């Protein structure tokens, strides 16, 4: 190492500088701290890389297991029974699962707090925008899991807006499509990441 005072090159065994006599004990302690910290950071990085390698090779899950059993009927019934509370919880959980399954696509599906605030500020117009964005995101991320969804954000938006004028069931059909596609992507996410999946019933690709 070098003396911090005169810059002379010093053997690691020396506790003081032979040129100027500076005590090097504190300098050695700081250097050891730096080296140890660097070693810790490198070790942590190595472990993260090992975990990523296993995840990429499907040797272990990348994240928590996602729900694949969402139901429109339960959503409607429990939302009514809980005066809307369950509906908000449903939106939050659905958003979290979509963000996990679609991680890395550069998009984000807002959850409970942003959803409530933006709905209030926009007089619930944001609900239609949220459904539109979610429909597009599910459609765009389907191919990464070997899936193909016919419904895009536009078709979901049409069911939610025009559908409510033509048939009162329009918004429910839109939500049903979002739930169905979310369940499909979440199930494929679980399979890709090593989680056991439920027995498939008929064709899952759309």
Q: In brief, what are we looking at here?
A:
The chain is 60% helix and 0% strand. With 206 residues, the protein is mostly helical.
Would you mind describing this structure in some detail?
With 206 residues, the protein is an all-alpha fold. The protein has 2 domains: 60 residues, no CATH class; 121 residues, no CATH class. It contains 7 helices and no strands. Helix 3 packs across helix 7. It starts with 24 loop residues before the first helix and ends in a 14-residue tail after the last helix. The C terminus is likely disordered.
Could you list some keywords that capture this structure?
206 residues; mainly alpha; 2 domains; 7 helices; 0% strand; disordered C terminus
Produce the secondary structure layout.
Blueprint: H1 25-56, H2 72-81, H3 85-101, H4 112-121, H5 125-141, H6 153-166, H7 170-192
Overall, the morphology is: elongated
The succession of helices and strands, N to C, reads: HHHHHHH
- Domain module count: 2
Note the total helix count. Answer: 7
Strand percentage lies at under 5%
Sheet with the most strands, sense and barrel status: none
Backbone structural class: mainly alpha
Spatial extent as radius of gyration: 28 Å
On the 0 to 100 scale, the average pLDDT is: 80
Q: Ranges with pLDDT <50 over ≥5 residues?
A: 200-206
Helix coverage percent: 55-70%
> In whole angstroms, how far apart are the ends?
66 Å
Number of strands: 0
